[in-house]
Automatic annotation (TrEMBL):
This is diguanylate cyclase. CDD domains: GGDEF (cd01949). NCBIfam families: GGDEF. Keywords: Membrane, Transmembrane, Transmembrane helix. The keyword Repressor does not apply. It comes from the Bacteria. The lineage of its organism: Bacteria, Pseudomonadati, Pseudomonadota, Gammaproteobacteria, Lysobacterales. SUPFAM superfamilies: Nucleotide cyclase.
């Protein structure tokens, strides 16, 4: 299989243009579902040991049964915080909705605020209320009395993809500007520049919109229930060993059915993950430096285009089939290695789709080339014997149906063997190519067909052509051939002449294509007998010229 016969500059330009076509689907994420399917397959079983400092204090079904109907008095949460303070917990996220004051007993708010102040390391959530009708988006903060005593606040905005899977997270978010850290980030309390894709929205955008920044993919420690968990009521009642709470990063949140947010993750589609465990996964990946980042959109687009361009370039080289077979798995392997070795997610679907399109176009081109090669002469590019016989049969049948004449012209190069032996095969091949060009140029109409069916033997099939029309074509062909000169070296040129036989009939019911061939062949021999460099016509009556 020969490579595409293009010069190197043209190969490179073609490859660059094809690669550029992939930028749009990559940039606009046309194949995001396929990308996420690959991503889920890569990270689904990619577990790691979570940070041992993290602990979930779960408001579970058992706690609801023993303490009573939800929501509980805020003094109950104050007592829990005191337990954690006394045990020496390092930091506590109290993932509870505290944006409204207790309307029945204001002392409840004071009790909770005092417990938060005594602890000194409590993180409280900021909830995002989306815009609805005329109502603008807003931040739901804890009431001022409680918020003033917290160590910090963190947003609890969970990013869920269109297919319902929670894969990513914005490390910062807020109304007007992304000023709140994510709850898991606030729990981890890591320092230094934040990772993740930056917000590209202009700074002067609406101050009333919920803005997000520093997008990352969550590296989950494993499926749900991966983190150590104790029941809220057990901690409240002092049934948990204080040593288990000492030095811990504690996340207090709901896991009970009916009140806890439920999330699907790439780790499993069979079990739900609570919002508390989601935040614990965020904290763990930040503490252990396992954040999965995305390349900037421009780099994602350029890499996708480059891979497709290289695939296209490979298909113009020898062993193109190997390039096609390797391009797809290499792209998937590259995405896998970048993720597993570099914690960098390259979405491969746009590149893979582009490669499939390029490979499909190449396969169609090869099939077309094989078809042309099967029906054309390798030296001259004219139709070969097989194609000649197919077209003669088709035009014979068409002429029989239409009642229109069909002319067959057989052509021999005069003294070709002598020229070939005297001047060499390279001169002989040049003669055949030059003659083929002239004969092909005289097959002017769409259904006319020029062929080389052996050695120095050529043919013209001229449908809907009477003998007079065929003679005009042959006269012009002979004149142009006589004017042709072929260089043979040392300043010498070779004069070429042709001998032609013409056979014209309206195909009858009893006739067959071989009758046309035999008739044209008989006319050719008449022309040879008459001295060559001329033609003879058989159109029903002997007509030697």
């Amino acid at each position: 299989m020969r490579p595409l016969t293009l010069s190197w500059p043209r190969r490179i330009v073609l490859s660059v243009l094809v690669g550029a076509l992939v930028v749009a689907p990559s940039h606009w994420q046309w194949f995001w579902q396929q990308d996420e399917a690959v991503y889920d397959a890569y990270v689904g079983g990619w577990d790691y040991r979570p940070d041992p400092r993290l602990l979930i204090v779960a408001i579970d079904d058992n706690s609801l049964q023993q303490i009573g109907q939800w929501p509980w008095p805020r003094s109950t949460h104050a007592r829990l915080l005191d337990r954690l303070t006394d045990a020496g917990s390092t930091r506590v996220v109290l993932d509870l909705m505290l944006s409204e004051p207790d309307r029945q007993d204001a002392a409840q708010d004071a009790d909770l605020a005092a417990a938060i102040r005594r602890n000194g390391h409590v993180v409280l959530p900021v909830l995002a209320a989306p815009a609805s009708g005329p109502r603008m988006a807003e931040e739901l903060l804890p009431i001022p009395l409680i918020a003033a005593n917290a160590a910090t606040l963190g947003h609890s905005d969970i990013d869920v993809d269109a297919d319902g899977i929670a894969r990513g997270l914005y490390l910062t978010a807020g109304i007007g500007s992304p000023h709140w850290p994510a709850l898991g980030l606030a729990l981890a309390d890591v320092r230094g520049p934040l990772p993740g894709l930056r917000d590209t929205a202009p700074a002067q955008s609406s101050p009333y919109q919920w803005r997000r920044n520093h997008y990352v993919r969550v590296r989950y420690a494993g499926p749900p229930e991966r983190f150590p968990q104790v029941s809220y009521v057990d901690v409240l009642n002092g049934e948990v060993d204080p040593a288990l709470l000492r030095g811990r990063l504690v996340l207090v949140g709901t896991t009970a059915s009916g009140i806890a947010p439920r999330l699907l993750t790439p780790t499993t589609r069979e079990r739900w993950m609570s919002g508390s465990e989601y935040q614990a996964n965020v904290a763990s990946m930040l503490l252990d430096d396992k954040v999965i980042q995305l390349p900037p959109t421009l780099w994602q687009d350029l890499l996708s285009g480059l891979l497709v361009a290289l695939c296209c370039l490979g298909l113009t080289l020898p062993r193109a089939a190997a390039s096609a077979l390797l391009a797809l798995p290499v792209t998937l392997l590259l995405s896998f290695v970048l993720l597993r070795a570099g914690n960098l997610w390259f979405a491969p679907a746009a590149a893979l789709t582009g490669m499939l399109a390029v490979i499909a176009a190449w396969v169609l081109w090869r099939i077309s080339a094989w078809h042309r090669q099967a029906n054309s002469d390798a030296l001259t590019g004219l139709g070969n014997r097989l194609r000649f016989e197919q077209v003669l049969q088709q035009e014979h049948d068409a002429g029989r149906r239409s009642g229109r004449p069909l002319s067959l012209v057989l052509i021999d190069v005069d003294h070709f063997k002598h020229h070939n032996d005297l001047h060499g095969h390279h001169v002989g091949d040049t003669v055949l190519r030059r003659i083929a060009e002239e004969i092909g140029a005289h097959a002017r109409r769409p259904r006319d067909m020029a062929a080389r069916f052996g050695g120095d033997e050529f043919a013209l099939i001229l449908p809907d052509t009477a003998a007079e029309g065929a003679v005009q074509v042959v006269d012009d062909l002979l004149a142009r051939t006589r004017a042709m000169e072929v260089a043979v070296g040392h300043g010498q040129t070779l004069q070429i002449t042709l001998t032609v036989g013409i056979y014209t009939r309206v195909p009858a019911t009893a006739s067959e294509p071989r009758h046309f061939f035999e008739g044209a062949d008989a006319a050719l021999y008449k022309a040879k007998a008459a001295g060559r460099d001329g033609y003879a016509v058989d159109e029903g009556e002997p007509d030697l010229r």
